[in-house]
Amino acid sequence: MSLTLHGFFRSSAAFRVRIALNLKGLPHEQVSVNLFAGAQHEPAYRAINPQGIVPSLVDGDAVLNQSLAILEYLEERFPQPPLLPTDAAARARVRAMALNVACEIHPLASLKPQSYLEREFGASQAQRDDWARYWMGRGFEAFEARLAGHPQTGSFCHGDTPTFADLCLVPQMFNARLLQLDLSPYPTMVRIEQSCLALPAFEQALPANQPDAV
């Protein structure tokens, strides 16, 4: 087995995959793709990921893109410890929460739309931050509502072991703090984040703990 993760320390999508690799105890090499320097647009990386985004995971001859697809691949190829519940309805709940973050909350505040707002509309950094906080806050309201008082919410988003939902939540909470979003309206999310960060797999995956952190 030889796993190589192409990512960037500040990428929340790569952050998700780092957590999964750590939780499953999978040794891997990390290759930095410096998004700030535009390395994602270089031909060598475009050959790995035509979208020019991170992460990409290389497992032998398999080249995988999109963080949630990578999580599903790791779950199927390395099923222990499981990061999805066994019950079909519970798996759907976990996947819905993961998709809430990956498809609805995260994209609006990511590098591409931020760059577009600056380039096409002359939006200042303060205006771009306001945009990101607004949409992130709307998404967090819905996510908190999914969690709060739900009988299947436990120490983590679903039950008492981490799932895909937690792997998506923690990086997004990191982004929220970078944007100085007020997290007081989301006490369940904050509590779950604390449960996650008490685990070495999450702590070791933090951006500041990566070899390319600056």
Q: Can you describe this structure?
A:
This protein is an alpha+beta fold. The chain has 2 domains: 3-81 and 204-209, Glutaredoxin (3-Layer(aba) Sandwich), CATH 3.40.30; 88-202, Glutathione S-transferase Yfyf (Class Pi), Chain A, domain 2 (Up-down Bundle), CATH 1.20.1050. It has helices at 12-23, 43-46, 67-77, 88-105, 111-121, 125-147, 164-178, 187-197, 200-205, and strands spanning 3-7, 29-32, 56-59, 62-65. A 4-stranded mixed sheet has the order 2-1-3-4, covered by helices on one side. The longest helix has 23 residues, at 125-147. The radius of gyration is 17 Å and the shape is globular. The mean pLDDT is 94.
Q: Give the uncertain stretches in residue-range form.
A: none
Write down the CATH class of the largest domain: Mainly Alpha
- Report the strand count: 4
CATH topology (level 3) name of the largest domain: Glutathione S-transferase Yfyf (Class Pi), Chain A, domain 2
Describe the sheet with the most strands.
Answer: 4 strands, mixed
Query: Approximately how much beta-strand content do the residues carry?
Result: 5-15%
Helical residues, percent? 40-55%
Structural class from helices and strands? alpha+beta
Order of helices and strands: EHEHEEHHHHHHH
Q: In CATH terms, what is the architecture of the largest domain?
A: Up-down Bundle
What is the residue-averaged pLDDT? 94
What is the radius of gyration? 17 Å
Put simply, the count of helices is: 9
The spatial strand order of the largest sheet comes to 2-1-3-4
Distance, first to last CA: 30 Å
Anisotropy-based shape: globular
The number of domains = 2
